[in-house]
Amino acid sequence: MLDTRIAMVQMCSKVGESSRNIDVIASFVNRAADESVDIVCFPELSVSGYNAGDRFTPEAEPVPGPSTDKLVTIAAQNNLTFLVGILERDNGGVIFNTQVVLGPGGLIGTYRKTHAPTSEIDTWSQGDQLPIFSHSKVNYGIEICYDSHFPEVSTALATKGAEVIFLPHASAGITETADAKFDRWLRYVPARAYDNAVFVGICNQVGDNGAGRTFEGVTFVCDPRGRVIAKSRSNSQDEMLVVDLNASDLAEIRLEPEGFFRHFRRGELYRNWESSQKTQ
Hints:
Layout: E1 4-10, H1 18-34, E2 39-41, H2 66-78, E3 81-89, E4 95-103, E5 106-112, E6 133-134, E7 139-142, H3 151-159, E8 164-169, H4 178-185, H5 189-196, E9 199-204, E10 206-208, E11 214-216, E12 220-222, E13 228-231, E14 239-245, H6 247-254, H7 267-278
């Protein structure tokens, strides 16, 4: 890893208004380019808007497709890598909650949400891949919202080479205030960073999405020791949080014999336990 400047964006994504949402994304990418950002992460379903439970609005679209064609142009114009959320329909008609990765050279790849809670399972399918993406400065992985509740995902990504894990969210606040959400996320998001010696950045949608859901933002970044090193100021407005990730912080923790926990993992022990569970 080299020193890397990332930006975590919290934004209001209107359901079914992809053109409007892409315009907002473009404005943030332009700003990020002006601030010499290397990678920008936008929230879950930032292009489509989040509307779990409705199979018709927003309408899923192919990747590549009309929206990603526009986003590719934005990436090329700004010479920047960024991650956006889109409701994807594959060639077989299967729908996925997908984070698309775009860079100066075009469409880099996709990550499909691998864990869907009860409220989402009938709206989109679960992905079954945990890809690692490479930037000239850093390797990174992605977990979408509910995925972050499963420690195995972060460990798998880190073991495969991720130095940063991005956690794009669309976590509404029907019964949860912004302070309560931040407090809840502090119970496990820093642990994903600390246990695996990686940087972790989380961002969320914010505001009224026009389909009956309101989001409180809450966006922050943790260093490899699990410390929050930057946090969004607002819980009600669009905001871009720019953070410098120091490569020396990652190297330092990974050189500590007892602090780099993954060095002592016993994969065979865990695999034996998993096998025993399957036979019960």
